[in-house]
Amino acid sequence: MLSIPALPRRYHAASIWALYVVGLCPAAWYFYQAATGGLGFNPVKTFEHLIGIWALRFIILTLAVTPLRDILGINWIRYRRALGLLAFYYVVFHFSVYLLLDLQLNFGAVGSDIVRRPYITIGFACLLLLIPLAVTSNNWSIRKLGQTWVKMHKLIYLVALGGALHYVLAVKSVTLVPFIHIAAIGLLLAYRPLRKPFLNWKRGKTRPARPATTT
Amino acid sequence: AAALSASPGPYKLDEKLTPKEAVTTYNNFYEFGVGKEDPSQNSGAFKPTPWTVKVEGMVGKPKEFGLDEILKMKLEERTYRMRCVEGWSMVIPWIGFPLAAILDQVEPLGSAKYVAFETVVRPEEMPGQGGLFQALPWPYVEGLRLDEARHPLTILAVGLYGETLPNQNGAPIRLVVPWKYGFKGIKSIVKIKLVEEQPQTTWKNSNAREYGFYSNVNPAVDHPRWSQATEQRIGEGGFFGTKRVDTLPFNGYANEVASLYTGMDLKANY
């Protein structure tokens, strides 16, 4: 089992805040670059695409938390809410750039895009599906909703699938960068049905030791 | 790029030219990578000289043109709109000559109906043609109907902005067909072949539902994944004021070329 030095408990909250700050850095940096001419001659599209890719990256990181704990014993569950919310913020940024800077509030064009263009339909559906997850990402909702919360937040799998599909359908040809992101999402989703058998197998192997989950 | 002189050609535009830096750094040339800046960044090793273009097929006098001979043609400056199928556009001062001038020299046979074009394959100089993930099968191929190829608007370009073509723009010689989407303008041409049947074209082979043989600019026929009604002018407006203009039928060249397609259903022949 891989072991990394455990972060003392008193730093947990600070490390989560640090994650928010670090996680918002790519958006801030690209925004600064786009606004000052550093993103080439089509800064809107470039910015829109970079922000979209970062949204996918945070979805990938969110999905990676559980297998990381199951397989390597690294427990970063305390960061999962921040990662999921960062993914949500980037999806919101991505859509805002499309709405404000790309189509310049031409709601007719936005509406017809959403209705007629499957990759935009899918992307928009993912944004909508993320809203209830973001709204209920607080301790009060978790306590209040109980098992419903757990079931509801499985929607992230659908969002991840939709995000990958949105990306594949948006590019003209799938080259290395899209492939890596899509493969990561594919592997992380494929792990879910394998999780129970894997944990049972692992438990059987280590018996009579206590369950493998460590902090 | 070396200086290249040309006389003013018959086609001018009253529109603002796209800055040269935008024309030479915002490119689709997948042989050098799929990012817009890849062609300008990855084409340094490409050698556009020496160069020959073979013109063959159903012609009376097949011929191999050396670059020196090509540069001795009567060169004209032509400022054309360029509309990319992706929804952006530029206004570019090309230097070139009508494709018809070369076709006349090789004397096409009566049976020739189409012109097929082919790009060079040099994986050692074109990084996009090597490696694990290649965007398209090579060589890149394109085609025109013979009457489209002979149309006075159709040129072979050897320069832009008063200089020979930069590698990223298709050095040393490329096709420019201003009323069609940009991908029809095949770059770094090594072969031109007169044929009887409609030739293979790279993007149609890759996705026939989205890219047709004709690919005439048409705001009324959407790309399956996006609208073609408007276009974004590259190099104008910046980040907070993207300049969008309406896309014109045949990219604004309808008066000159619409008659080539009379009686044709342009929705079916996209």
TrEMBL record, chain A:
Where do the Ferric oxidoreductase domain residues begin and end? 52-163
Which InterPro entries does the UniProt record give? Fe3_Rdtase_TM_dom, MsrQ-like
Keyword NAD appears in the UniProt entry: no
Q: What is its main location?
A: membrane
**Membrane spanning stretches:** 12-31, 51-71, 83-101, 121-142, 154-170, 176-194
UniProt keyword list: Cell membrane, Electron transport, Flavoprotein, FMN, Heme, Iron, Membrane, Metal-binding, Transmembrane, Transmembrane helix, Transport
Cofactor detail note? Binds 1 heme b (iron(II)-protoporphyrin IX) group per subunit. Binds 1 FMN per subunit.
Cofactor needs: heme b; FMN
Membrane topology recorded in Swiss-Prot or TrEMBL: Multi-pass membrane protein
GO terms for cellular component: plasma membrane
Q: Name one GO biological process term.
A: protein repair
Has the keyword Metal-binding been applied to this entry? yes
* Protein's cellular compartments: Cell membrane; Membrane
What are the protein's GO molecular function terms?
A: electron transfer activity; FMN binding; heme binding; metal ion binding; oxidoreductase activity, acting on diphenols and related substances as donors
Q: State the protein's purpose.
A: Part of the MsrPQ system that repairs oxidized periplasmic proteins containing methionine sulfoxide residues (Met-O), using respiratory chain electrons. Thus protects these proteins from oxidative-stress damage caused by reactive species of oxygen and chlorine generated by the host defense mechanisms. MsrPQ is essential for the maintenance of envelope integrity under bleach stress, rescuing a wide series of structurally unrelated periplasmic proteins from methionine oxidation.
Q: How does it assemble?
A: Heterodimer of a catalytic subunit (MsrP) and a heme-binding subunit (MsrQ).
The family line of this record is: Belongs to the MsrQ family.
Name the chain's protein.
Protein-methionine-sulfoxide reductase heme-binding subunit MsrQ
The upper taxonomy is:
Bacteria, Pseudomonadati, Pseudomonadota, Alphaproteobacteria, Hyphomicrobiales
